[in-house]
User: Which sequence fits this backbone?
């Protein structure tokens, strides 16, 4: 598939998507987001892909929405364009998405990063929501997901000052999983993605959904959902294979059925 602003490839069972507008630090224009969602959904439908890695380049994961594209917008044209509807489709991807982040992850770039399930950051990463400095505020989930990730007071500080935090600070606040030297961030993410891609994909899918329920729902509903997913997995061949392999003391071979 031909894209202008992303690159998509695969390595075994891992799909890799790289944002590709380096001259503007991967600023997220509407076309880029459309291309990204199209490719994420394509990879989500491809049974041979079991984990997805989303990355940018060493200097920028993404420096936010394309400011030039937004600068002359009016409220009603924004409302009618409803550009954030497509972001709900990113949140709806059922396979695990790992972000390999380096450099700037700002504004929409931070929001995109927070839509991923696991985040490996290079030590040069700067994460922030600088929208307030432009006279606006986050619109693709920043006030909600950042608050749930780092807690109220740190979210307030980041959102009200617009100042970014370092990778180490992000790690301390649980916003990223791991910080590694810049030459390692992609490699480390791929290593983890390959490990996840070896797991039974139906279980991975239901685990992702259940964890996301924990963020949105009361505990009792989440527990109920989890229990039903657990029962459902006993209809899969992978449950039979996984448990049989344990008993027979061999490595399981998961078919995704
Ligand atoms: N939009 C458009 N162009 C950008 C953006 C951006 N967000 N960020 C950088 N660029 C461009 C610059 O204009 C520059 O282009 P040119 O070479 O033609 O002048 C090029 O990228 C390189 O940038 P700089 O020269 O500024 O590089 P520096 O290293 O000096 O600075 C910074 C890097 C600090 C990242 C700086 O570029 C910056 O502050 N960028 C803007 C960051 C920002 O405010 N982001 C938030 C945008 S608003 C937003 O994300 C709202 C979210 C709503 C939902 C998302 C929907 C997609």
Assistant:
């Amino acid at each position: 598939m031909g894209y202008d602003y992303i690159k998509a490839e695969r390595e075994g069972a891992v799909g890799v998507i790289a944002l590709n507008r380096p001259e503007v630090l991967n600023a997220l224009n509407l076309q880029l987001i459309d291309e990204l969602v199209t490719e994420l959904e394509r990879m989500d439908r491809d049974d041979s892909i079991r984990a997805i890695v989303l990355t940018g380049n060493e200097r920028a994961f993404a420096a936010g929405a394309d400011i030039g594209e937004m600068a002359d917008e009016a409220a009603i044209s924004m409302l009618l364009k409803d550009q954030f509807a497509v972001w709900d489709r990113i949140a709806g991807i059922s396979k695990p998405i790992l972000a390999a982040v380096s450099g700037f992850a700002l504004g929409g770039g931070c929001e995109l990063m927070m839509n991923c399930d696991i985040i490996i950051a290079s030590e040069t990463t700067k994460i922030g929501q600088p929208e307030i400095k432009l006279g606006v505020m986050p619109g693709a989930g920043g006030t909600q997901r950042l608050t749930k990730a780092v807690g109220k007071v740190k979210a307030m500080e980041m959102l009200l000052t617009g100042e970014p935090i370092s990778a180490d600070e992000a790690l301390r606040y649980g916003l990223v999983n791991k910080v590694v030297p810049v030459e390692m961030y992609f490699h480390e993410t791929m290593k983890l993605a390959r490990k996840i891609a070896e797991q039974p994909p139906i279980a991975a899918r239901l685990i992702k959904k259940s964890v996301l329920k924990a963020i949105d729902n009361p505990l009792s509903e989440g527990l109920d959902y989890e229990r039903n997913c657990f029962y459902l997995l006993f209809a899969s061949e992978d449950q039979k294979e996984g448990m049989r392999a344990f008993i027979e003391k061999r490595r399981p071979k998961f078919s995704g059925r």
